[in-house]
Design brief:
alpha+beta, elongated, nine-stranded antiparallel beta sheet
Length: about 190
């Protein structure tokens, strides 16, 4: 049986790889509590993982529904699935919006041009498209870097617990890791 350190290292390595190259864990599904208490789930790209603090970074539009939801209820959950390894990873944690201008700029600079272009439109994702709307072509705000950056938000998710389920073996293996003060406790659980 794997030790706690082996399990933790495997999870940390998987999350690190998901943020430094494309892996099945790069795309996760983030769950928030909607404004009426309903569950809301959407796909997000993992951008960074800090193993020392067990935090994941995602980015989004500052006016998106998820920002409002996180502002109201910062507890979130995420599910990642690697179909090549038959492994599911579920995370629960607390989301915190990055407000520090230096940190926001650092994250912004780490993103590619294609991602930057997503913030050029003044339109907020998930809202109705006005009949006279333009995405970015001919839009004076598309070239205003201050306006573009104002639409960008970075969110750190501090992982409080995780559940690693390995379906690749005949007797599926599942471990639960929970943040315990400054460290982690773990338990093998029934799959």
């Amino acid at each position: 049986m794997m030790s706690f350190e082996q399990i933790r290292d495997l999870v940390w390595q998987s999350l690190h790889e998901a943020t430094t190259r494309r892996t099945p864990f790069t795309l996760g599904h983030l769950a928030t509590a909607g404004l009426s208490g309903e569950p809301r789930v959407r796909a997000v790209i993992l951008r960074e993982f800090d193993a020392d603090s067990a935090r994941l970074l995602i980015v989004t539009h500052a006016g998106s529904h998820k920002m409002v939801e996180i502002g109201r209820e910062p507890r979130v959950a995420m599910t990642l699935y690697d179909d090549t390894r038959s492994v599911q990873l579920r995370l629960e944690g607390v989301a915190e919006t990055v407000h520090d201008p230096t940190e926001r700029q650092r994250v912004w600079q780490s993103l590619g041009d294609q991602t930057h272009d997503l913030y050029r439109s003044p339109l907020v994702p998930g809202t109705p498209v006005p009949e006279d709307a333009t995405q970015s072509a001919g839009n004076p705000e598309a070239d205003d870097e201050t306006a573009v950056l104002a639409r960008f938000a970075a969110i750190w998710i501090r992982v409080e617990s995780l559940d690693w389920l390995d379906l690749s073996v005949p007797d599926h293996l599942r471990w639960r890791l929970v943040r315990d003060g400054g460290g982690w406790s773990w338990l093998r659980v029934v799959p």
